[in-house]
Specification:
This protein has about 400 residues and is of the alpha+beta class. The chain is about 30% helix and about 10% strand. A 7-stranded antiparallel β-sheet has the order 6-5-4-3-2-1-9, with helices on both faces. A two-stranded antiparallel sheet has the order 7-8. The protein is globular and about 55 Å long.
Length: about 400
């Protein structure tokens, strides 16, 4: 993806990017109001993300959201959007729109599936961020007040933070890891990280709760760092009373870390290629090759930071996630988790099945498939790709042949 060198280093948590950076050109992202994008032009480019669809249905009365005394509309929203409760991850650092409400004893919970993240903090409103197949991530909120037709509001003001180098210059997702004080305030003087699957565990989850079986010394989760000089960090435990789940599962966190940057990459490639086609750029083939290379490297986990020790999901998330398939005739799926040395058993992102991937311009999908085949067939012989074993390549090709509609004939 054509992002600037500084942006890539930030997005990668300053990890594993060095081999890639030198190959990327310094360019700016396509602006959101570009005629080929029309992010703000609701009439010519009506949003098709799942939350915008839910908003239309609630106003029409075809979907009714239930209000519970404890969590308001939360459970009903999750049901309507098909977001599993087992996906819950919990953050206690003051790093969101509802900063004033968040602290270690009143953390913010986030639930997600392939296309939407739903956040809730006690005493506040529900936040939703959903990926439109073409526009990128669209942000919404829902007031926690009983109403006959609950009003889901689009929140373009969220873009003050959610268009940045970290989101690759498009409306997208960001995951931060912060050294967090006991009151939940990030200690910016100590630094921090933006994380994805390329980031080592030792940089992840500062300001987040982490549950499941994992050595607590491997990450920054569950820790607060007092401001007093010489004071030692203190360990916290998530208390799930009043929440939909008592977990902030390590497997869910690992998947979340991978997926958010994958969503941004898909959006960025779609925007750049649409803008390039609109302008009839002569260098479009170069843009396609460079964009496809970065997207495919991430899609195939080429720079994934290895797990230093096995971890185990205890919330039921891993089983729930794997059960969504699709599964090939050998019972294999791109959703099967490894959790011993890496995230996935078969290192190819399940996001290849997402509506956003399928909605990429035909030229972009073609470039991505061509690059995938270069890597998976062994035509690409660069040292960076040695980590993708012959068995992995064969398994990924076999799974895609049976489960991915529209796969080019040369994969057969």
């Amino acid at each position: 993806m054509l992002i600037n060198r500084i942006g890539l280093l930030i997005a990668a948590g300053v990890v594993c990017a060095g081999a890639v950076v030198a190959e990327l050109a310094d360019t700016l992202a396509t602006p959101a109001d570009h005629p080929a994008i029309g992010y703000y032009n609701y009439l010519q480019h009506p949003p098709r993300d799942v939350v915008s669809e839910l908003s239309r249905k609630t106003q029409q009365g075809s979907v009714q959201l239930r209000f519970d005394n404890g969590t308001g509309y939360l459970r009903s929203v999750l049901d309507a959007l098909h977001v599993p409760v087992e996906s819950q991850v919990v953050v206690f650092s003051k790093t969101s729109l509802q900063t004033e409400r968040i602290e270690p004893h009143n953390p913010r919970t986030i639930f997600f599936n392939d296309s939407v993240a739903v956040a809730w903090v006690r005493g506040g409103f529900i936040e939703m961020a959903s990926q439109d197949p073409e526009l990128g991530v669209i942000f919404h909120s829902l007031a926690q007040q009983p109403a006959s037709h609950p009003d889901v509001q689009r929140r373009d003001d969220c873009l003050r933070c959610h268009i940045s180098d970290i989101s690759l210059g498009v409306p997208g997702m960001m995951i931060r890891s912060r050294y967090t004080a006991p009151d939940g305030m990030p200690q910016l003087i100590l630094g921090g990280f933006s994380t994805d699957h390329r980031s080592p565990l030792k940089e992840r989850w500062g300001g987040w709760y982490v549950t499941g079986k994992i050595d607590p010394g491997l990450h920054l989760g569950n820790m607060v760092f007092p401001r007093e000089e010489g004071a030692r960090p203190a360990h916290l435990d998530f208390r799930g009373e009043g929440y939909l789940s008592p977990y902030s599962d390590v497997a869910a966190l690992l998947v979340f870390n991978h997926q958010m940057h994958m969503m941004n990459l898909i959006t960025r490639m779609g925007w750049d290629v649409r803008a390039g086609l609109h302008a009839k750029r002569r260098d479009l083939p170069v843009l396609l090759r460079q964009s496809a290379k970065e997207l495919v490297d991430y899609l195939l986990f080429i720079d994934e930071a290895p797990l230093p020790a096995p971890v185990e999901s205890t919330s039921g998330f891993a089983a729930k996630f794997a059960a969504r398939g699709p599964v090939d005739s050998h019972g294999r799926s791109l959703r099967q988790l490894d959790l011993r040395t890496r995230l996935l058993r078969y290192p190819c992102s399940y996001m290849i099945y997402s509506p956003a991937f399928d909605s990429l311009p035909a030229e972009a999908r073609s470039a991505v498939y061509q690059r995938m085949w270069q890597v998976l067939s062994g035509e690409e012989t660069g040292f960076r790709y040695v980590r993708l074993s012959a068995a992995d390549r064969t398994a990924i090709i076999g799974i895609l042949r049976e489960t991915k509609p529209g796969l080019p004939a040369y994969f057969r």
